[in-house]
Amino acid sequence: MVKKRVLFVCLGNICRSPMAEAVMRHQVELANLSERIEVDSAGTGDWHLGHPPHEGTRQQLDEHHISYEGMKARLVSSTDFDAFDYIVCMDTNNLRDVRKLLSKEQGEQAKLFTFMELLPEQGIEDVPDPYYDGNFPFVFELVESGCKELLSRVQEDLN
Ligand code: 4NP
After folding, report:
1. For labelling, which of 30, 36, 39, 131 has a CA lying 20 to 30 Å from the CA of 6?
2. Digit-coded pLDDT (tens) for 24-47
3. Residue 89 a catalytic site member
4. DSSP bridge pairs for 133
């Protein structure tokens, strides 16, 4: 049975990428695909290693009845590139930082892309960082729509 693994990457791994991880896993569960699609997240910065998601992210997930149980911040590493089929960076800085961990050929593979490439109609390059502007509800909206699109792409790849 083919399995696909998705990794979301942001800076601190406490706001955006854990939100995307929890929302994507929730959507995967609703689609009865938990056996076939695995979801994780990681950060490029090490300030919050081992910490649970940020209060603002937890509030959004609580409001939408989405679990974040047991989630803890970790660092992204070059070995993630071999373990995951899709590496989705929440902004273009994250993409640049992940590329630095990889060889040029690895960094140019289609599996590495930004989250906003899933939502071209939004006309923005980066998922804005709510750690700085506090706009967690807007990030939740983007994350919910982007994960829907990503799920349909992953589903096609499973078939
Ligand atoms: P995130 O947000 O990358 O969406 O998790 C941030 C979290 C922490 C910091 C920056 C951004 N920080 O500088 O500690």
Report:
1. 131
2. 999 999 999 999 999 999 999 999
3. no
4. none
